[in-house]
Amino acid sequence: MVVQKRCLLWDWTNTDGPGHAGVSWAMDNVNFGGPISSLSNWNTWVPPELKGRAAFRPMVHLEAQLSGDDWNRIENTDQPIIHYFNEPERAGISAEHAADIWFNQMLPLRSQKGKRLVSPSCSNDEAGQAWLQDFMNRTSSEAPDYLGLHYYGTDGNTAIQFFQDMHAKYPNQPIIVSEIASVARDLPSVLGFTAQLANWMDETDWIFEYGFFGCMRQLADGFVSSEAQLMRPDGSFTDLMMKLMWDQPINGS
Question: Who has the most CB within 10 Å: 70, 81, 88, 94?
Answer without folding.
Answer: 88
